[in-house]
Amino acid sequence: MVSSKLLFIHTSFQFSGKTSKFIEYFKQNKKEYDVSVLALEPFLKEEKRILNKMELDIGAYNIPVHNLADLKTNSLSYFVKKLQPDIVIMYDDAFLMNATITAICRNLKIPTLYIQHGFYPNSPVKKNIKFISFVEKILKYKIFISFYLRNTKLNLSKFISLSRKLIRMSFFNESVNPTIIIDDFHCDYAAVWDKSSLVTTIKSKGYNKNSTFIVGNPDGINFFSSNFNYSTNSKNILYVMQPLVELNIIERKFFIKWSQTLINILPSNKSLMIRPHPKTDMELLRLCFPNAEIVYDENIDLSFVIGHYSTYNEKTQYMVPTILVTFPETENYSTDIIFNNSKKVKANNNKTLLELLSQKNIDFNSELPQRFLMDFYKETTSIISEIINN
């Protein structure tokens, strides 16, 4: 039996936790898929790459990871053609290089699938960027633009839309709040979490309703899931990190100052655990929280969860009392309706945060809503198989 070839697209060398789990799911369920990864990273050489936990977890499977550093702008199409994947899968369809891959695949008649990787906030996700940083970002886009222009058909209308999109991408996260629809910037198919995401994906991203499918939330009940054990007497408090500094949402010095405040006001009988985001700068994490335990598993006792507006907190708020700390730059996102079960506190309101963390005997019932009960990995794998066999 010939294995189907799957090419996963990552926006950087930070190996995706979802890809890692998909690979493990395929192997455990005897899915005959030949998987490879293309990292859209043009600046690092392979020998400088540091493997993260997600990649180390599936190290025994020897998944090849390719990167743009080894490709020239006119050879990306040749690379995809030579690899001959049966499907190309990505978690971001709005990044310039993802659009390049989508355009190449359409020319080669290779289907592409976008898998939702985060919730769609009602408010635009604004980046905290100064003019000099904007200029640097535009210059950084130069190599990506060269890839894109060599692999797409450009007319005047598309050029104007692309110019507007590039400017907006420098100040806002166009991936989760797209406002400018260009055909290359969405895949052939989309796998989304729920009905609300389906509506947004069709309306804002430009997908066809007949090629958009609901597959459930990756943080819900699935092949890998385990749940936190809520205990009011637990000494453990989990902080769910987000790449606020890494994505230029808040300033580095401000975040460092806040992290010190969090450590200082933590009740003496509590210990802080950290769940990193795949894009977390681990050096920054260690600088801010040198004594905290880093955890990825869920089968632990917790008394509270602290976060900001992470998709993961949408789940934790139903399992453990969850507190969302808001900065001026993030307040609009944490007040989204999906976080209605979380307590909100401003980052500079130390008194309220301490009071919340010191609470005991909270009347809290751990129960996940129905929308978390779809097996994301099973449903998405089924969609992948259907597309390949179509």
Structural account:
By secondary structure, the chain is an alpha/beta fold. The chain folds into 2 domains: 4-220 and 374-389, Rossmann fold; 229-357, Glycogen Phosphorylase B (Rossmann fold), CATH 3.40.50. The protein has 13 helices and 15 strands. Strand 10, helix 9 and strand 11 (293-294) form a beta-alpha-beta unit. It is globular and about 60 Å long.
How do the SSEs run, as a string of H and E? EHEHEHEHEHHEHEEEHEHEEEHEHEHH
Mean pLDDT: 87
In DSSP terms (H or I, runs of 4 or more residues), the helix count works out at 13
- Identify the overall geometry: globular
Largest β sheet strand count, sense and barrel closure: 7 strands, parallel
**CA-CA gap between termini:** 18 Å
Number of separate domains = 2
Number of strands: 15
DSSP strand (E) fraction?
15-25%
Q: Which sequence of strands runs across the widest sheet?
A: 3-2-1-4-5-6-7
Structural class: alpha/beta
Task: Give Rg in angstroms.
Answer: 21 Å
Second CATH tier, the architecture of the largest domain:
3-Layer(aba) Sandwich
CATH first level of the largest domain:
Alpha Beta
Under CATH, the topology of the largest domain is which? Rossmann fold
Poorly predicted runs are none
Helix content: 25-40%
